[in-house]
Specification:
The chain is an alpha+beta fold. The protein has a single domain, classed as Rossmann fold (3-Layer(aba) Sandwich). It is built from 5 helices and 5 strands. A 3-stranded mixed β-sheet has the order 3-5-4. A two-stranded antiparallel sheet has the order 1-2.
Length: 117
Amino acid sequence: MDPGGYRGRTAIIAREEWRQVIRLVISNQRGGVAKTTSVANFARYLADRGKRVLVIDTDPQGSIGTVLGLKPAKYLHDFVVYNHLFKDCIVEACPGVDVLCGNRETVKTEEIGRAHV
C-alpha cells in the first residue's frame, strides 16, 4: 500500500513521488456514438489542466490516430504481440497527450489474447 492509502490506484514515477492514476474507459459496441471525439476532447481538456494523458486506441479502425493526424511507426499490435518497446510505440499528439494507436492488426491482437485466456 502506498503512503496515501490508495492501493492499486497510484503509480511510482521518477524521484519516487506518488501520483494518483485515473483509468477511464470509453467504450460502446455501437458505432457513431462519439467515442473518438469524446476521447480526443477529454484528453486535451486534461492535458490543458496539467495532467499527463495516455490514450490507448483498441479500435481496429484506428480512428483516434486519424482524427489527431498521427503517423505512428508502430501500433498496439506491435507492442502486445512483438514486444516492441512501449516508448517506441507511443506518439505525442500534443503536449501532455501520448497515444498508442490501433490499426487493422488490433483484431489479431484480440484473437491472440482470447486464445491465451
